[in-house]
Amino acid sequence: MHDLKREFGPAQASFVDQTGERPRENHYWAPVIVTREAIDAEVARLAALPKPQDGRRHSLIVHPSARAGSPGLAPGIQVSLQVLLPGETTQPMRHNATEVNFCIRGGGSTRIAGRTIAFRQYDVWNHPAFAAYSHTNDTDDIQVRLVYSNTPLLQHMEVYVPEFGVELEAPTETMTAHASDDPKRRNPFGMFPIGEDGGLLMPYETLINPQVIESHPLHFSWQQVKAELDKLEALGSEYVG
């Protein structure tokens, strides 16, 4: 587990006079192209490496304008190329970023949030934040995934929290809400309108400890998605949606 407690020495804020100044222009990132040939070459390089201790062979695809300390392909998006050889399994980990996995070669399975997702080429599935997961390649081919996450945004805000070597959740384990049942800590009036403009007055305990909305892993099988796309294609040229 991460120890989130930190000790700091004395520090002093400063005033920066902005009188008459305007906010700086945004730093716009130019479009980049990552070719299939480049991806295939990196897959071959990763596959030739000795198996790492945690089983995670991966490279980040980084834009040349990415900020130091938060490497991404877009200002708030990280794209990772991940490779797993037949018979290999990654050590479980979790982090407070959310992920979308896209299998571009091979297949396998992912254990996450108490379930096992069996996937094949072109399948897509998500990882909710702070759900422990592990990937397995139980096929005869190399498993290659593109993994998208909001890690750079969290790193830029200095709030990214990864944990390695964690336990996977049991199938019966579920998330529980953090709301207190202590009546002394619960505002009896709840949240209610204030004024005529649609504003609401929110109790402080609701602000700092909102109701938990559980996020589940979702698996989009390419076989099922393609069947729905085929229905649209069958509508012919008259459908322009």
Provide structural commentary.
With 241 residues, the chain is of the alpha+beta class. 15% of the residues lie in helices and 23% in strands. The chain contains 4 helices and 13 strands. The strands form 4 sheets. Strands 1-2-9-4-7-13 form a 6-stranded antiparallel β-sheet. A 3-stranded antiparallel β-sheet has the order 6-5-8, with no helix packed on it. A hairpin with a 6-residue loop joins strand 11 (192-193) and strand 12 (200-201). The protein starts with 35 loop residues before the first helix and ends in an 8-residue tail after the last helix. The mean pLDDT is 92.
Strand content: 15-25%
Number of strands: 13
Order of helices and strands: HEEEEEEEEEHEEEHEH
How far the N terminus sits from the C terminus, by CA atoms, comes to 49 Å
Mean pLDDT: 92
Give short descriptive properties of this protein.
241 residues; alpha+beta; six-stranded antiparallel sheet; three-stranded antiparallel sheet; 4 helices; 13 strands; globular
Question: Short summary of the structure?
Answer:
This protein is 15% helix and 23% strand. The protein has helices at residues 36-47, 151-156, 204-208, 222-233, and strands at residues 57-60, 78-84, 93-95, 99-105, 108-112, 115-119, 124-127, 133-136, 143-149, 162-164, 192-193, 200-201, 219-220.
